[in-house]
Specification:
single chain; alpha/beta; 4 helices; 5 strands
């Protein structure tokens, strides 16, 4: 990912959970908070309820690729945590991408100049 680092530590996730704003839809929950830097940091959480390790890895890859495909259109300087719900385990790439795009629009996360181009 060009403009994004990963959230890796538990305290980073907890900070975003407690201080950030959240929106949800059928497949995903997304927490967002400003981080004061020039780049975004993305954390993805997929619990064991979603499925076994192969399924969880697949869902993680789908979310990461969906984010990467729209990364250039997004505002920068935020910590983002995306949580997969159980219904995400049988979703296709297109469904995950549409769910993530829906949450990004709810958070008003797209740059205005990029939105005019589409």
């Amino acid at each position: 990912m060009l403009f994004t680092q990963s959230l890796k530590k538990n305290f980073q996730f907890r900070y975003v959970y407690h201080k950030g704003r959240s929106f949800a839809n059928r497949r995903l929950v997304m927490y967002v908070i400003k981080n004061g830097t020039a780049e975004n940091r993305l954390g993805i959480s997929v619990s064991k309820k979603v499925g076994k390790s192969v399924v969880r890895s697949h869902v993680t890859r789908l979310i990461r690729e969906s984010y990467r495909s729209m990364e250039a259109e997004l505002k920068r300087g935020y910590d983002i945590v995306v949580i997969a719900r159980v219904s995400c385990n049988e979703a296709s790439y297109w469904e995950v991408r549409d769910s993530l795009r829906h949450l990004m629009k709810k958070h008003n996360f797209f740059c205005p100049e990029e939105a005019e181009k589409k």
